[in-house]
């Protein structure tokens, strides 16, 4: 009886640590992220994945994550250390409500200064596995979103006051 109880307590503790971003210290080290090949990632319920990317010069990171319909994943970035739910340099909640038939690409843009950047994806759903694809691209193009209406809804690049929408988005401000 006590072995079963101890097992349930340990399982609950590990799930709660993952949910709050206090990652398992016994987990394998973060994988190197390639900017030439997409990554196929499978996240268990309440699971996470971590990778790292060395940036030698200031650039924009274009991170495209393809998620199945109604899947929700948290994307965390942190400079020089693994991110947690309370310590991160960037967070974006990714959810696919666009396409029921195929995974939908959700683009995110982040200005990255020279450093080792750690990327974590967290599936906080207790009963749903997440299978996703992530593609990371570095570019020197200026993706500042301040010159365009609504900042291109964070779904496109602003160039000369005109939004150029990422794949899957349209409209003057990329909101459709």
TrEMBL record:
Coiled coil: none
Gene3D superfamilies for this protein: Galactose-binding domain-like
Alphabetical list of InterPro entries matching this protein: EGF, Teneurin, Teneurin1-4_GBD
This protein's UniProt keywords: Disulfide bond, EGF-like domain, Repeat
Ranges where the EGF-like domain occurs: 163-174
Entries under PANTHER family matching the protein: TENEURIN AND N-ACETYLGLUCOSAMINE-1-PHOSPHODIESTER ALPHA-N-ACETYLGLUCOSAMINIDASE (PTHR11219), TENEURIN-A (PTHR11219:SF69)
Listed name of the protein: EGF-like domain-containing protein
Species this protein is from: Macrostomum lignano
Source organism phylogeny: Eukaryota, Metazoa, Spiralia, Lophotrochozoa, Platyhelminthes
């Amino acid at each position: 009886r006590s072995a079963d109880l101890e097992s349930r307590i340990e399982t609950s503790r590990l799930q709660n640590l993952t949910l709050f971003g206090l990652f398992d210290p016994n987990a394998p080290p973060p994988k190197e992220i390639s900017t030439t090949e997409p990554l196929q990632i499978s996240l268990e319920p309440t699971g996470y994945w971590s990778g790292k990317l060395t940036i030698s010069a200031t650039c924009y990171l274009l991170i495209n994550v393809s998620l199945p319909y109604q899947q929700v994943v948290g994307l965390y970035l942190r400079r020089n250390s693994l991110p947690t739910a309370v310590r991160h340099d960037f967070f974006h909640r990714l959810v696919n409500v666009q396409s029921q038939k195929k995974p939908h690409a959700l683009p995110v843009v982040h200005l990255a200064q020279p450093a080792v950047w750690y990327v974590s994806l967290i599936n906080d759903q207790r009963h749903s596995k997440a299978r996703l694809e992530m593609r990371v691209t570095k570019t020197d193009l200026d993706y500042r979103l301040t010159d365009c209406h609504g900042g291109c809804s964070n779904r496109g690049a602003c160039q000369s006051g005109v939004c150029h929408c990422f794949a899957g988005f349209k409209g003057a401000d990329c909101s459709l």
